[in-house]
Write a structure and sequence with these properties.
Layout (H helix, E strand, L loop, with lengths): L14 E2 L1 H13 L6 E8 L5 E8 L6 E6 L2 E6 H7 L3 E5 L6 E5 L5 E2 L5 E3 L1
Parallel strand pairs: 1-6, 2-5
Antiparallel strand pairs: 2-3, 3-9, 4-5, 6-7, 8-9
Length: about 120
């Protein structure tokens, strides 16, 4: 079972687990830039048709939706949100099978590594 951290917004469209929030905050602290937030998105490609994307950014877009997780800002543009709504981002440590994992209820099929999906 995944422990979820709810965003401050009334509607929980994207969810980050406490482990994901902690890891993203740790990674942002290592960056030399200020005002960084996590940008989640999707791109075409990957072995299942669409790939998840994660990046640090400090330039909000006009069509972004912002979520707050314990002070961590996460932005998703509205186009990507169509594919990511309901998604939970988790983080698992460990040498095998660790890293960030997307749990997307809209994904009908995902590749073996979990980085791409089909809606």
């Amino acid at each position: 079972m995944i422990n979820e951290t709810k965003p401050s917004a009334a509607e929980a469209v994207i969810t980050l687990t406490p482990a994901a929030v902690t890891e993203v905050k740790r990674l942002i602290a290592e960056e030399k830039e200020t005002n960084l937030f996590l940008r989640l998105g999707v791109t075409s490609g990957g072995c299942s048709g669409m790939s998840y994307s994660m990046a640090f950014d400090n330039q909000p877009g006009d069509f972004d939706r912002e979520f707050d997780f314990e002070g961590l800002k996460v932005r998703v543009d509205l186009k990507a949100l169509m594919y990511l709504a309901g998604t939970t981002l988790d983080f698992k440590g460990g040498l095998v099978g660790g890293g960030f994992q997307f749990h997307n209820p809209k994904a009908k099929r995902s590749c073996g590594c979990g980085s791409s999906f089909t809606c």
